[in-house]
Design the sequence.
């Protein structure tokens, strides 16, 4: 019997020829990533358990990005960043990207890709549920809690239960108004928020391989919204080109065998898909934009590791160009590199940043910002009574700041079209 | 560590979330103070709706009023056991109440990891649904070496999925103890 791509990578990382779903195996970890929210408690557990002799198993494999609660006066949030800073200097952690310095990167999952830490065939763990994003690079990546992260920090090893896989095949040529966000909202609507529990979501099909890396990361990013352990897309030429530009590490490309076993396989024809939203208060509460169009909004938000990448802003700018936004609209580049590109990339001779500013959008500094609410002075945060449409990944009650707000999740096209009209709007009206 | 675990079954349905295992309002108690910590046992599984508690009949409380420990020490669950918020208090509460093993079709990943790495309870999963075959109060015997569950009351026997590489962690007590025993620390 054949193996899936996830099984093959886990087999390699555990030094076995074969692994079977359900088995508990020990893995050698290639990269451990942490950030300002979970880094400090991880370090605390590591010190407690490993004692005075606590050693980082491999400094080069630890990567730390402050990104969550960064631009705030909140004292606890600032203390967390201080803990990371002191830890990095005390233990000589070179892959620390301090805020307030030119090294600052922004949201961890996008920074991992940009800085060349995502390498096909490797195993990456992070103290963040959206660590599954890196799976877009044909690698295994998943989130763990602080205890497990502390264990990895000291040993470089962790056990994992080999997941069963679900396969999603997207056939056909994507219509120009459909993005990866629409595809993943479709999947979530079909399998619900626990349909992927303890499983791997594998994305395949010509429509997936026609996507750039930014878009592929939108698919794998939201695997956790189905409860999945990881999301994964086989590496191809697009992946290799992206990786080679950023890293000279050796890599190995794995792919699923023809006769691999899947829990289930879903086939989609993308040519007849239409723009989708997730209605309040769950990412699997799928509907068509058509069915909710006209819903009055108080805020639009384009940002986060899901919807704050360059391709997301390029798409949004196509619609926003030459228009004025009718409700407060926030543009939050996921990383400082994306922020820079907003100034460099142009549409009709005007930079994307200028397009957004001309239309009345607020362009914010790179960070997680209001994606998860954050301290009360966080930019773009939802307050009581608001109705928000956002390119982020979660709309559980209170996620963006207020339990008394409603959040719709949608593609950058849909959010941009809605910003221009002030009500939820089908982007096909503009494209 | 005992290789054979005997006890009475407490049977639950699918999707038992961590709020049912230990309702958020009870998360205030100290996790280390021996007296205060007993409250986690007292309130373990207190969030399960009456009709779903102790299947097939329901209406059985896991921990009797005024007690801190349960009469039952083997929990039989269904699919997606331990879903919801990832609080580590959940497997801890079950341990404090005296639960030794959970047998369920599938688990939410964080709950499963917390159970093993914190050394709280043994999470066995099963190739088949058992929460419609075993009744609350049945006398069970679980053989950790051979991964078998024997229902002494009914005489039925079932195979459980092997724990694999995590059995030594369970035997050591928790993941850090395991590492110490194996000179990883
Ligand atoms: S942008 Fe949002 S989803 Fe992404 S890491 Fe930050 S808080 Fe999490």
Sequence:
């Amino acid at each position: 019997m054949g193996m899936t791509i996830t099984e093959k990578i886990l087999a390699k990382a555990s030094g076995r020829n074969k692994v079977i779903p359900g088995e508990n195996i020990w893995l050698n970890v290639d990269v451990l990533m942490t950030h300002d929210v979970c880094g400090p408690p991880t370090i605390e557990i590591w010190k407690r358990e490993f004692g005075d002799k606590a050693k980082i198993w491999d400094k080069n494999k630890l990567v730390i990005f402050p990104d969550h609660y960064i631009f705030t006066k909140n004292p606890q949030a600032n203390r967390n960043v201080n803990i990371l800073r002191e830890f990095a200097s005390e233990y000589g952690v070179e892959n620390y990207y301090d805020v307030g310095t030119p090294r600052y990167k922004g949201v961890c999952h996008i920074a991992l890709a940009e800085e060349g830490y995502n390498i096909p065939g490797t195993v990456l763990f992070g103290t963040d549920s959206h660590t599954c994003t890196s799976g877009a690079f044909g690698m295994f990546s998943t989130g763990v809690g602080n205890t497990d992260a502390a264990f990895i920090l000291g040993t470089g090893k962790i056990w994992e239960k080999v997941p069963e896989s679900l396969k999603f095949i997207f056939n056909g040529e994507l219509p120009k108004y459909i993005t990866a966000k629409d595809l993943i909202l479709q999947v979530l609507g079909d399998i619900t928020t626990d349909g992927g529990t303890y499983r791997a979501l594998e994305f395949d099909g010509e429509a997936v391989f026609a996507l750039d890396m930014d878009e592929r990361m939108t698919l794998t990013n939201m695997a956790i919204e189905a409860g999945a352990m990881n999301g994964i897309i086989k590496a191809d030429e697009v992946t290799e080109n992206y990786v080679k530009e950023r890293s000279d590490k050796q890599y190995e490309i794995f792919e699923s065998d023809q006769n691999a076993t899947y829990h289930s396989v879903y086939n989609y024809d993308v040519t007849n898909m239409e723009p989708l939203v997730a209605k309040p208060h769950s990412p699997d509460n799928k509907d068509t934009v058509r069915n909710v169009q006209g819903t009055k909004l108080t805020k639009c938000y384009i940002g986060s590791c899901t919807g704050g990448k360059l391709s997301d802003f390029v798409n949004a700018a196509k619609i926003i160009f030459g228009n004025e936004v009718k409700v407060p609209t926030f543009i939050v580049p996921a990383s400082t590199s994306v922020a820079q590109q907003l100034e460099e990339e142009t549409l009709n001779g005007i930079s994307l940043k200028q397009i957004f500013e001309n239309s009345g959008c607020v362009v914010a500094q790179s960070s997680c910002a209001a994606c998860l609410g954050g301290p009360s002075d966080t930019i773009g945060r939802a307050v009581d009574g608001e109705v928000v449409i956002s390119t982020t990944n979660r709309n559980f009650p209170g996620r963006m700041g207020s339990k008394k707000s409603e959040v719709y999740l949608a593609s950058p096209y849909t959010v941009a079209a809605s910003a221009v009209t002030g009500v939820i709007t089908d982007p096909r009206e503009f494209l | 560590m005992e290789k054979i675990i005997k006890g009475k079954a407490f049977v639950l349905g699918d999707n038992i979330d961590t709020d049912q295992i230990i309702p958020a309002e009870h998360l205030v108690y100290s996790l280390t103070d021996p007296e205060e910590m007993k409250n986690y046992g007292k309130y373990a599984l207190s969030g399960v709706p009456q009709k779903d508690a102790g299947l097939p009949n329901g209406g059985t409380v896991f921990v009797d009023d005024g007690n801190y420990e349960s009469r039952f020490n083997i929990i039989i669950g269904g699919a997606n056991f331990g879903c919801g918020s990832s609080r580590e208090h959940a497997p801890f509460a079950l341990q404090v109440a005296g639960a030794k093993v959970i047998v369920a079709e599938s688990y939410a990943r964080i709950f499963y990891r917390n159970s093993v790495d914190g050394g709280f309870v043994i999470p066995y999963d099963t190739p088949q649904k058992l929460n419609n075959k075993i009744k609350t109060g049945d006398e069970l015997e679980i053989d950790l070496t051979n991964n078998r569950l024997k229902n002494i009351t009914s005489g039925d026997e079932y195979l459980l999925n092997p724990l694999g590489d995590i059995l030594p962690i369970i035997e050591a007590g928790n993941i850090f103890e395991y590492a110490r025993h194996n000179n990883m620390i």
Remarks:
- The longest strand of chain A covers residues 164-171.
- Chain A has a mean pLDDT of 96.
- Residues 75-91 of chain A form the longest helix (17 residues).
- Chain A is about 30% helix and 20% strand.
